[in-house]
């Protein structure tokens, strides 16, 4: 009986090590290892996901960040009405991420056509950069737009592994 318990414990440890190593191995191939590990470890699906699953988790992170940024944009309309024009452009950009880029990436990765998934992920980073540029250096969204660019770059690297 003791041997069986010990064997079971060893097997559980081996599974946990292999799960962690999948995330770590995958993240080593991205431009930001620490961000990648942090994002994937924060999602319970990460521990059992294959590369496609890890990519989909990160696309969900892009979606969540875009949603958060849109909420911030909406609150800035009240606080900073002088930025209406730039905020309007950013709102359009982040809505594009949510309505076009994210669904395109999810569908493409899910259907095994990662090239189109890569396109959606790249575009999310581009949309964030264009939004940031609308403020001419005085953006109240810099932290969020830079985060979107970083998450997009990490996600792109993982999607490229599927090509």
From TrEMBL:
Q: Does the keyword Membrane apply?
A: no
Q: Pfam families under this entry?
A: PMEI
Keyword Signal among UniProt keywords: yes
Q: From the Swiss-Prot or TrEMBL record, what is one GO molecular function term?
A: enzyme inhibitor activity
**Signal sequence coordinates:** 1-20
Q: Which UniProt keywords apply?
A: Disulfide bond, Signal
The record's listing under InterPro entries reads:
C/VIF1 (IPR034087), Invertase/methylesterase_inhib (IPR035513), PCW_Enzyme_Inhibitor (IPR052421), Pectinesterase_inhib_dom (IPR006501)
Q: Where is the Pectinesterase inhibitor domain?
A: 18-158
| Entry-linked PANTHER family | PECTINESTERASE INHIBITOR-LIKE (PTHR36710), PUTATIVE-RELATED (PTHR36710:SF13)
Its family?
Answer: Belongs to the PMEI family.
Protein name as annotated = Pectinesterase inhibitor domain-containing protein
Organism whose genome encodes this protein = Brassica oleracea var. oleracea
